[in-house]
């Protein structure tokens, strides 16, 4: 950095007056040009800058971290106010230049400042394109270009409402993720069939879409925006309300961000009579059709091309600086550009040209289990295109080969695996990892490099993957680098490495339940075939063990989105009745909290008579079981029960079974609270949700505990001061008393704690693992910490439960009475009408 | 050997993938299965273990798991897989123009099959 004093002295002593350099626009490229110029010819120019934005030069590409809250504006400033003072630069902030007078050699700002120039740089950047659809001018429709846009978005995001981002390119996706991080419900609408289609090929575009959706952003590809709908103008000034797509879909929107492309800002140059095509036309020396005027940055069109990434713009900046410093030979030769998406945890890298063509070959590596996809495009022994998804560690090395146009005939076999494997070395993965330098990034999500992992293993004496995860966070997020991390451990420990011994879900996979669950979420897998494909299932369509488990995990992960797969359910859950030893079924209606009425009992009696049901029994769960119903009769039986207000009791479900109650304070002389009422409330709140295994509750009105709450999955014992909540009891195959969970003072608090507990169980429990087994595995204290002690966590769990209940509380009997899955209940063909009497 | 008699029992589309439907016959029920790759099979709807209705089981690969006690039977041969021993009768089946044709002639003169359905 220069010293002010020295500069002032030099300026005073300089023989010729400095030339006047005026710059229109204060973006990233002129900032870089000035740095270079002040290095090469510190004395040559007196610089004046006009900037339409009312601020100093900042790193525009880091706006996304500002939007997501990872950074503040101060952290992305490139040149602070002091820099301008130091360099004697006059910066007009918030002054848009409205005219260039080439005869008078002046520029005029919107506020009337007229500035003479000897040399002029136009660096006006680009203007975001606004789709001219109806409603595009409504309040709440923004573009994404500068800090003001970010500030406006953050303001709307406070409402935590809905945002729609139009455009699934780099900018649109970063905006979407940023808004999501700010708590908005975000949808991305993209015209093309895959995201970022200009930088990615179809397979990597699809992987990206999964990753984006896994972050809670809905992606609509192949979707065209027809109209932006506003609020009723009668109710105050109209602002955006929704986005209407061509197919009629209406996406609610409190905010619409258009990120559909940019157009070079060339109007000022055009008005001044300079040659303008798509951008301001410049020669290799970056001069426009007027040799005293340069165009620089996104507004310039060099060699017939406009550029939208900073790397080539910085190359341009170097040429402009050299030319201004007197090097007339400096010429702009654009080289290939590389793209990375700046979304934490999503690793993609693309460079060059990877379109298919007859004159080119490609090498593709796909490791679905690790979420890795790589494609190299080759032409005549040169690398011309690279797409890396998931594991981008070798991006820099490959990009270097591409830019240099290196002859890769010797590397062909191994270059896919990076420099460590190249040069004819054997393809032992450990060898490739051994060859990685210490600063090679292993875990992209958490930015952990190889050296850190090795050091931590040594320092802490770690022996297992879990240990490394806990201490370094490597592979602890999306897990796609788990294989690499394991290799680093193996390399460091040799035989001392304790490979995790997980019990696989079933014979179709080597993965355990927890890994499968984690990967379903991390990879945004949304169907059973997608899971099997992505996680390398060894059977074509799973087995009777894994399919029901996957069906549950998908339901729990994607409420409202995942379509339940009936064929992957055990018969009882498929037809919502319990199969009996003779192939008939039992029917158990809900009897909320064990309370019934004359009308319900009469309806049940009528059904029993009408369908000649052989057995009626009171169950151990305080309700009534109708046994021996033929399958074909089920819908008709349910219709009659529904008519009396009775719905399915889910006596077959991995879900809420019964909430047993005692009579409590309504009648009992010892009752302290309304145990019956609370039981009914709990049952009404919890019914319908699918859980890893069945869930049974009981509420007793006093510690005498007539409802046997202390051997249930969850129990409540009412006391004078409120409600003691207990959990993790068992009274079936195992017998185990419950453990204390917490104490609540109100019914509402009791319900919130229990719903949070059930949700945590839904998220962590392995399929068929009852609550007491889950609690034993993860520790009752850890559960208590989350659902009782940490009010915020509890609330979040409760909220997620409420969301999923929104999609779960539909009576399956009523659905089937209305015709759903009708094929289940009738034979496909009846060649035996004569056999009717026998059935 | 009796002569082959193809009976049209319905469209393949009426059987869910990885699912089953039942054909009632005077001798009892026959289960039609459809695999993920649209192959179809016909078996007597009666598990060799304790008579469970196979049509109510979970179909996976070319197997079905009985709903009562989880025996796994091959749809191709009707044989119980793994350690279990037993066999459910199979019937010739072909799919033509999307229709399922089954040869049930083996049933003729047989006593009534399982009573499940
Ligand atoms: C009907 C009922 C017996 C009765 O006549 O009272 C019953 C019947 C069955 N129980 Fe039960 N259990 C019934 C109350 C119980 C209870 C008592 C309770 O809920 O208070 C227990 C002990 C508490 C518990 O769940 O821990 C109980 C522990 C079991 C178990 C052992 C579970 C365990 O994890 O230890 C099984 C086996 C299983 O689920 O794998 C089981 C399984 C079954 C199944 C579903 C067996 C099966 O898979 O086919 C029975 C089906 C009956 C049907 O078709 O309706 N049933 N079962 C009771 C129905 C209650 C209801 O209204 O829904
Ligand atoms: C959110 C976001 C993320 C990005 N991410 C990446 C990335 O990851 N990698 C990458 O390589 N590139 C990225 N880019 C693109 C990169 O930021 C631009 O290519 C680069 O900033 C362009 O620099 P520039 O100097 O040409 O113009 P700009 O930086 O746009 O600066 C132009 C300036 O000129 C001002 N101006 C315009 N007209 C006038 C006028 N008449 N008078 C006075 N002032 C005027 C404007 O207000 C603006 O401040 C991203 C861009 C955005 C918006
Ligand atoms: S003992 Fe049972 S019935 Fe009696 S008050 Fe307590 S809870 Fe109620
Ligand atoms: S009846 Fe089929 S397994 Fe027992």
Could you explain the architecture of this structure?
The complex is a heterodimer of chains A (839) and B (117). With 839 residues, chain A is of the alpha/beta class. Chain A contains 26 helices and 39 strands. In chain A, the strands form eleven sheets. Chain A has a five-stranded parallel sheet, with no helix packed on it. In chain A, strand 5 (106-109) and strand 6 (114-116) form a beta hairpin. In chain A, helix 12 crosses helix 13 (465-472), helix 22 packs across helix 24 (780-789) and helix 22 packs across helix 25 (791-808). The model of chain A is unreliable at 1-6, 422-427 and 834-839 (pLDDT under 50). Chain B is mainly beta. Chain B has a single domain, classed as Rieske Iron-sulfur Protein (3-layer Sandwich), CATH 2.102.10. Helix content of chain B is 0%, strand content 38%. Chain B has no helices and ten strands. Chain B has strands at residues 6-11, 19-25, 28-34, 40-44, 58-60, 63-65, 72-74, 90-91, 93-96, 99-103. Chain B has a four-stranded antiparallel sheet with strand order 2-3-4-8, with no helix packed on it. Chain B is globular. Classes of the chains: A alpha/beta (839), B mainly beta (117). Strand 39 (829-830) of chain A pairs parallel with strand 2 of chain B, so a sheet runs across the interface. The complex binds siroheme, flavin-adenine dinucleotide (FAD), iron/sulfur cluster and FE2/S2 (inorganic) cluster (FES). Flavin-adenine dinucleotide binds at residues 24-29, 50-53, 60-61, 63-64, 96-97, 123-125, 144-145, 171, 265, 268, 297-298, 308-311, 313, 342 of chain A. Chain B: One of its GO terms (molecular function) is 2 iron, 2 sulfur cluster binding. Chain B: It comes from Roseiarcus fermentans. Chain B: Keywords: 2Fe-2S, Iron, Iron-sulfur, Metal-binding, Nitrate assimilation, Oxidoreductase. Chain B: This is Assimilatory nitrite reductase (NAD(P)H) small subunit. Chain B: Residues 6-102 form the Rieske domain.
């Amino acid at each position: 950095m220069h010293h002010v004093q020295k500069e002032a002295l030099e300026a005073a002593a300089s023989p010729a007056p400095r030339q006047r350099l005026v710059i229109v626009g204060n973006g990233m490229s002129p900032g870089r040009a000035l740095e270079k110029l002040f290095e090469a010819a510190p004395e040559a120019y007196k610089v004046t800058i006009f900037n339409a934005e009312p601020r100093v030069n900042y790193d525009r590409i880091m706006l996304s971290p500002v939007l997501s809250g990872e950074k503040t504006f101060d952290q992305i400033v490139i040149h602070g106010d002091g820099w301008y003072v130091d360099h004697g630069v006059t910066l007009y902030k918030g002054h848009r230049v409205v005219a260039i007078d080439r005869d008078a050699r002046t520029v005029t700002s919107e506020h009337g400042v007229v500035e003479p120039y000897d040399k002029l740089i136009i660096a006006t950047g680009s203007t975001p394109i606004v789709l001219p659809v109806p409603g595009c001018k409504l309040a709440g429709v923004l573009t994404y270009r500068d800090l003001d846009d970010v500030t406006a978005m953050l303001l709307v995001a406070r409402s935590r409402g809905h945002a729609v981002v139009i455009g699934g390119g780099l900018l649109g996706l970063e905006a979407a993720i940023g808004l999501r991080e700010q708590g908005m419900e975000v949808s991305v609408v993209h015209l093309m069939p895959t995201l970022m289609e200009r930088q990615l090929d179809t397979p990597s575009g699809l992987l990206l879409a999964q990753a984006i959706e896994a972050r809670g952003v809905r992606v609509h590809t192949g979707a065209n925006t027809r109209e932006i709908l506003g609020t009723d103008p009668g109710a105050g000034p109209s602002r955006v309300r929704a986005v209407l797509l061509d197919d009629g879909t209406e996406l609610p929107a409190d905010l619409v961000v258009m990120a559909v492309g940019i157009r070079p800002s060339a109007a000022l140059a055009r008005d001044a009579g300079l040659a303008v095509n798509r951008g301001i036309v410049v020669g290799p020396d970056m001069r426009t059709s007027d040799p005293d005027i340069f165009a620089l940055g996104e507004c310039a069109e060099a060699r017939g091309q406009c550029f939208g990434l900073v790397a080539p713009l910085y190359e341009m900046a170097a040429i402009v600086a050299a030319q201004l410093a007197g090097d007339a030979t400096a010429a702009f030769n654009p080289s290939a550009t590389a793209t990375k998406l700046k979304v934490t945890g999503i690793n993609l890298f693309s460079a060059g040209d990877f379109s298919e063509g007859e004159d080119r070959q490609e090498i593709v590596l796909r490791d679905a289990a690790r979420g890795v996809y790589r494609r190299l495009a080759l032409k005549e022994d040169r690398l011309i295109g690279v797409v890396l998804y998931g594991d981008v560690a070798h991006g820099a090395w490959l990009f270097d080969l591409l830019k240099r146009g290196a002859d890769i005939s010797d590397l062909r076999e191994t270059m896919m695996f990076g420099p460590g494997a190249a040069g004819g070395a054997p393809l032992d993965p450990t060898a490739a990892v051994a060859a990685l330098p210490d600063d090679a990034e292993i875990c992209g999500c958490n930015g952990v490099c190889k050296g850190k992992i090795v050091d931590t293993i040594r320092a802490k004496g770690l022996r297992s993957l879990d240990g490394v995860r806990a201490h370094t966070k490597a592979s602890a997020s999306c897990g796609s680098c788990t294989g690499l991390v394991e290799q680093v451990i193996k390399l460091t420990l040799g035989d001392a490495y304790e490979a995790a011994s997980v019990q696989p879900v079933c014979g179709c996979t080597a993965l355990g339940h927890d890994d499968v669950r984690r990967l379903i979420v991390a990879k945004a897998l949304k169907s059973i075939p997608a899971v099997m494909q992505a996680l390398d299932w060894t059977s074509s369509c799973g087995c009777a063990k894994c399919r029901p488990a996957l069906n549950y995990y998908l339901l729990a992960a994607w409420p409202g989105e995942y379509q339940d797969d009936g064929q992957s359910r055990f018969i009882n859950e498929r037809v919502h009745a319990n199969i009996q030893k003779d192939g008939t079924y039992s029917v158990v209606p809900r009897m909320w909290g064990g309370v019934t009425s004359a009308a319900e009992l009469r309806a049940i009696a009528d059904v029993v008579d009408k369908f000649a049901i052989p057995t009626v029994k009171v169950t151990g769960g305080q309700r009534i079981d109708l046994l021996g119903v033929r399958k074909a009769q089920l819908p008709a039986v349910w219709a009659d029960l529904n008519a009396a207000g009775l719905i399915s009791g889910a006596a077959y479900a991995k879900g809420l079974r019964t909430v047993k109650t005692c009579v409590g304070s309504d009648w009992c002389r010892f009752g302290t609270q309304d145990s019956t009422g609370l039981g009914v409330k709990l049952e009404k709140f919890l019914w319908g949700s699918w859980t890893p295994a069945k869930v049974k509750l009981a509420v007793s009105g006093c510690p005498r505990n007539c409802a046997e709450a202390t051997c249930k999955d969850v129990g409540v014992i009412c006391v004078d001061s409120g409600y003691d909540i207990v959990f993790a009891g068992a009274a079936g195959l195992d017998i185990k008393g419950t453990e204390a969970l917490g104490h609540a003072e109100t019914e509402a608090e009791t319900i919130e704690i229990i719903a949070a507990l059930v949700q945590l169980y839904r998220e962590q429990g392995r399929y068929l693992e009852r609550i007491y087994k889950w609690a034993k595995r993860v520790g009752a204290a850890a559960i208590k910490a989350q659902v009782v002690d940490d009010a915020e966590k509890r609330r979040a769990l409760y909220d997620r439960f409420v969301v999923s209940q929104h999609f779960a509380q539909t009576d399956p009997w009523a659905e089937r009475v209305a015709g759903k899955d009708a094929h289940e209940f009738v034979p496909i063909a009846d060649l035996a009408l004569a056999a009717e009497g026998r059935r | 050997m009796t002569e082959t008699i193809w009976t049209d029992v319905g469209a393949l589309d009426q059987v869910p993938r990885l699912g089953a439907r039942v054909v009632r016959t005077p001798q009892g029920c026959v289960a039609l299965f459809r695999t993920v790759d649209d192959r179809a099979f016909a078996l007597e709807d009666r598990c060799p273990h304790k008579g469970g209705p196979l049509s109510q089981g979970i179909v996976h690969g070319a197997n079905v798991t009985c709903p009562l006690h989880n025996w796994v039977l091959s749809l191709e041969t009707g044989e119980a897989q793994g350690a279990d021993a037993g066999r459910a009768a199979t019937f010739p089946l072909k799919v033509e123009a999307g229709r399922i044709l089954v040869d049930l002639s083996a049933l003729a003169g047989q006593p009534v099959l399982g009573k499940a359905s």
